[in-house]
Design brief:
Largest interface: A-B, 40 and 41 residues
Number of strands of chain B: 12
Largest sheet of chain A: 6 strands, mixed
Oligomer: heterodimer
Shape of chain B: globular
Number of helices of chain B: 13
Low-confidence stretches of chain B: none
Mean pLDDT of chain A: 96
Low-confidence stretches of chain A: none
Helix content of chain A: under 10%
Structural class of chain B: alpha/beta
Number of helices of chain A: 1
Number of strands of chain A: 10
Distance between the termini of chain B: 17 Å
Helix content of chain B: 25-40%
Strand content of chain A: 35-45%
Distance between the termini of chain A: 12 Å
Chain lengths: 145, 398
């Protein structure tokens, strides 16, 4: 699993807590960690206190494969806030294990004229050192890249 | 049918001055609109016994709310049998839908409903960036809650989220930017004869296509224009409105449903929105059909949202809104389905939902001046919102 570090763009980072820490730091071990129901196996994002499928409270985080498909995207040209070099791609991806679970992310390392909804992707992590705990932002790139 | 809304109506509408940056007190603008609506209905202040607003008092984002419920109740010294405000409802018209429910439940007879914005002045010369969370880029700011799923990816704007729905629609159905253009071009054509519109200069397809890209497939003219202004409407008990100044606009039916995950990215079909749920509920409560409707005033915070509403409401098939609007003839003021006859939020300003209800009422009362549809419509649809927050009304002139 690729980890991008060093010369990375400014990003607003999340406030880490017990419900999101594994998601935002799993990249340190190359893992895309998501919540999963310990009883029925349903993947859950974002965290909620009970499984929406079986109402179990036995929830654990687990490493997903990091594989996903592109559900949709937009090539953003507007400087809303400090961030990656313009234009950058905002994307929604569906994880391989359970396509109904989606992540909003950035699509990277993909020429813009090659972007197609449905294309296979995998996760890469961008390392952001931080005094409150390093964050590994999960981004996605084409499977073939 | 016995639907609760059949006992209610719109009895008057009012609007303050509207401008890009008026620099006026937002409560003053709100009260201007409220008093105008009360006078339009032919009511006295003492007759108003209910109040409803979207979203209520809020300080962020700046300019998003011009006044809260308590401020207006107090400033007008109202005595109310029911009042409400809130952001988590079926779009901006959720506040009108709640007023209808309160009237039909017998809690009040005449509800003052309003929506007030001063986003133009609040944003100032810096534009949207001035009001974006974390927009200052200070390293200390950390994203909480919902924002943590968008800000780390530099996706803070509804423009980005809704552009992704449009992109999915474009790829699945072959929708084109040249088709989507007609939401903006139709709006501008109508704004040219609306003296209160923000942008009134003529715009061609070439102008539209040449404008700067915001986030694909949206360019500048696909995004509504922040403004200052307030709009108010009176929801009345139908039997108390028949001897008032205006022919009542009966609420024939309404839609408030949400039947998917209330989320920009987790909603199951990214080419549709919960507007399809609200629309289906509205049609399930009436014998009227889309073919009975003579004007539609449909939210255009972003151009694609109007296309999404046209499909949700059944004016065209799912995926067919591009060809439906292409060329702009069908949706013109003299077309078979006049759309956003005041210019919409794209050209007449982001009055946030209530501008569409105001326009439907003015058109149905034959009071729209130079932009009046030749034969004032007897049946109209008003819809507002996008993503998870959608509501719609079917109005019939009594």
């Amino acid at each position: 699993m690729t980890v991008l570090s060093g010369d990375v763009p400014f990003r607003v980072l999340p406030q880490l807590n017990d419900h999101n820490r594994d998601f935002w730091t799993g990249g340190a071990r190359g893992e895309l960690r998501l919540w999963r129901c310990g009883d029925c196996g349903f993947w859950i994002h974002p965290w909620q206190p009970i499984c929406p499928q079986c109402r179990s409270k036995k929830l654990v985080t687990e490493a997903a494969s990091g594989r996903a498909t592109l559900a949709t995207y937009t090539i953003n040209h507007q400087r809303w806030m400090p961030g990656p070099e313009l234009p950058y791609v905002v994307a929604i991806v569906e994880i391989a294990e359970q396509p109904s679970l989606r992540l909003t992310t950035n699509l990277v390392n993909c020429p813009h004229d090659r972007i197609r909804i449905g294309m296979p992707l995998h996760v890469v992590f961008e390392h952001h050192p931080d005094a409150d705990g390093d964050v590994y932002v999960p981004l996605f790139e084409p499977e073939a890249a | 049918m016995g639907a609760a809304e059949r006992t209610t109506c719109i009895s008057g509408v009012g609007q303050s001055d509207v401008g890009r940056r008026l620099g006026r007190d937002p409560l003053e603008l709100t009260l201007d609109a409220c008093l105008a609506a009360i006078a339009d209905a032919g009511l006295e202040l003492r007759d108003v016994d209910g109040l409803s607003t979207y979203p209520g008092a809020l300080t962020t984002p700046p300019g998003f709310s011009g006044a809260g419920a308590y401020e207006v109740i107090d400033a007008l010294r109202l005595s109310v049998g029911w009042y409400d405000s809130g952001l988590e409802t079926s779009g901006q018209l959720g506040s009108v839908i709640k007023a209808v429910l309160a009237v039909s439940a017998g809690l009040c007879n005449h509800v003052l409903c309003f929506r007030s914005v001063w986003e133009g002045s609040a944003q100032g010369a810096q534009g949207r960036a001035a009001v974006m969370p974390g927009g200052g880029g200070g390293g200390a700011f950390k994203a909480h809650g919902f924002l943590q799923w968008t800000l780390p990816f530099s996706a803070p704007s509804a423009a980005v989220w809704i552009a992704m729905f449009a992109q999915a629609h474009f790829q699945r159905y072959g929708t084109t930017k040249e088709q989507m253009a007609w939401i903006a071009l139709n709006g501008r054509r109508n704004a040219q004869v609306n003296p209160k519109a923000i942008y009134r200069d003529p715009m061609t397809l070439e102008d539209y296509m040449a404008s700067r890209v915001v986030t694909t497939p949206f360019s500048l003219y696909d995004c509504d224009v922040p403004c200052d202004g307030a709009t108010a409407v009176i929801v009345s008990r139908l039997d108390r409105a028949r001897d008032l100044r205006r022919p009542p606009l009966r609420i024939e039916s309404m839609g408030a449903a949400l039947r998917g995950r209330p989320s920009w990215d987790q909603y199951e079909d990214l080419t549709t929105m919960p507007n399809r749920d609200a629309a289906a509920q509205m049609w399930s409560r009436t014998d009227l059909k889309p073919s009975d409707v003579q004007t539609v005033q449909l939210y255009d915070g972003f151009s694609f949202l109007t296309m999404s509403w046209l499909e949700a409401l059944g004016f065209c098939g799912v995926g067919e809104s591009g060809p439906f609007i292409e060329g702009g003839t069908r949706i013109a003021r003299d077309g078979e389905l006049p759309l956003n006859t005041h210019g919409g939020q794209l050209s007449a300003g982001r009055l946030h939902g209530y501008g569409f209800l105001h326009e439907a009422a003015v058109q149905m009362w034959g009071d729209a001046g130079e932009r009046q549809i030749a034969r004032p419509p007897e049946v109209g649809v008003v819809a507002a919102g996008g993503g998870q927050t959608c509501g719609c009304l079917l109005l019939v002139r009594d």
